[in-house]
Every structure is written in C-alpha cells, then in structure tokens.
Amino acid sequence: QKEVEQNSGPLSVPEGAIASLNCTYSDRVSQSFFWYRQYSGKSPELIMSIYSNGDKEDGRFTAQLNKASQYVSLLIRDSQPSDSATYLCAVNGDSGGYQKVTFGTGTKLQVIP
Amino acid sequence: ETGVTQTPRHLVMGMTNKKSLKCEQHLGHNAMYWYKQSAKKPLELMFVYNFKEQTENNSVPSRFSPECPNSSHLFLHLHTLQPEDSALYLCASSQVGNEQFFGPGTRLTVL
Fold first, then answer.
1. Option in B43, B55, B107 nearest A103 (CB)
2. How confident is the model over A51-82, as pLDDT tens digits?
C-alpha cells in the first residue's frame, strides 16, 4: 500500500466550478498535511498546510482533514485556467526516529475555459 | 536572496563529465533534500539530510554523491551519468518534519 495516495487524473472542471482533490494516507500518527501546486516544468509551491481536523480556508482554497478516515482534501472554488497544474499532497510521519514528509504522485487538474 | 536557490539552472553534460549541483537555503531550516523528477513522473526522493546528517538514501546509484557541509548548503556531485539520468533535480529545505520549500530546480541533460 502506498503511503500517500492520489488519483493521477486528469481532473477536468469548467472555469468557475469547484475542483475537489483528494488524498488518503496510511500512517495513522501523521500530524501535518500539505498541499503543493506544481506547474509543468516548475518546482512545487506550497499552497496550504493543515494540522487539525476540519476545514482551513485561504482565499479560494479550502483544505479539509479527517484523521479518523485518514483523508485530506483540497477544494478550489471559482476555478480559473491558471489553476491548471498538478497538485501534490504531502504528509509527515516518523521514519527511523526522524520526521519525514512523503509526497503523493499528484493529481493533474485541468480547468477548461 | 530569498528562499531556496539552486545553481546552475540548466546543465548539459556528457557521460564522462563530472559536475556538481549546488543548493543554498536562506530560511534557517535544519533539513535539506534532493529530489529527482523525470518527465511526466512523480517526485522521487533521493537524499535527506537532517542537521547535516544523511538520514535517507533511497537506493540512489553511486554516480550521485551528496554533500552537506552545513545546514545551509547542499551539493549533488555527478559523475559518469547515463542519459536516463536526464531530469529536473530539485532541492528543498524544511524544519524537520514540517513543510518543505523547493528551489527552482536544475534541468539536467545527459548526452
């Protein structure tokens, strides 16, 4: 079982719609969860961090965390063509006594004008 | 200078060359990372340094040799690479266990 799982997509949504990106993780003791956006040929850019159950909103982005279900999601409201990118979920966990962040393989989002 | 910087941004090398990639972070972090990202593939973690100590080597071939002289600098020494090593090499830094911040990457082409 992969430690962090994401649907590779592509996820296609029309401009103005809500895009919903999902991520599941296997390590029950994970405490920190991150969403990154990566444009083609560029490096990943941190867009959200979430540490406790519930929702966290930042502009058009909302991260949702459910530790009991080991599930974290990212909602993008009023999707824009500029949101078209690959979104990476990352989860921290313990690795031989050191904290380690593990990335999912990413979901490609396409916002159709 | 802000964030995480990487040099060079682009590198073309032959299979017999020796070159080094450099990464520098200005964020006061205590962990640094090297990732490889091949075309249309996910991030592959290569090496992790926590407090200058290498804590992870994900079965990376010995033709890649990391060096972390201090908590702000990270190098990746390259020798006798193969064409399949052509990729985007990303450096990142973080406080241990926290969100990572990435540099712009080095686009490497091996001829």
1. B43
2. 999 999 999 999 999 999 999 999 999 999 99
- C-alpha–C-alpha distance, residues A29 and A96, integer Å: 14
Contacts of A7 in chain B (CB under 8 A): none
State which amino acid sits at residue B33.
Y
Measured CA to CA, the distance from residue B55 to residue B16 in angstroms comes to: 29
- Residue A104's identity, in one-letter code, is G
Q: Which chain B residues have any C-beta within 8 angstroms of a chain A C-beta?
A: 42-43, 45, 48, 50, 55-56, 88, 90, 94, 96-105, 107
- Grade residue A8 by pLDDT with cuts at 50, 70 and 90: confident
| B-chain residues near A39 (CB < 8 A) | none
C-alpha A91/C-alpha A95 separation (Å) is 12
pLDDT tops 90 at residue A2: no
Structure tokens at A25: 């993780």
Asked whether A46 and A36 are in contact (CB, 8 A), the reply is yes
Is residue B50 over pLDDT 80? yes
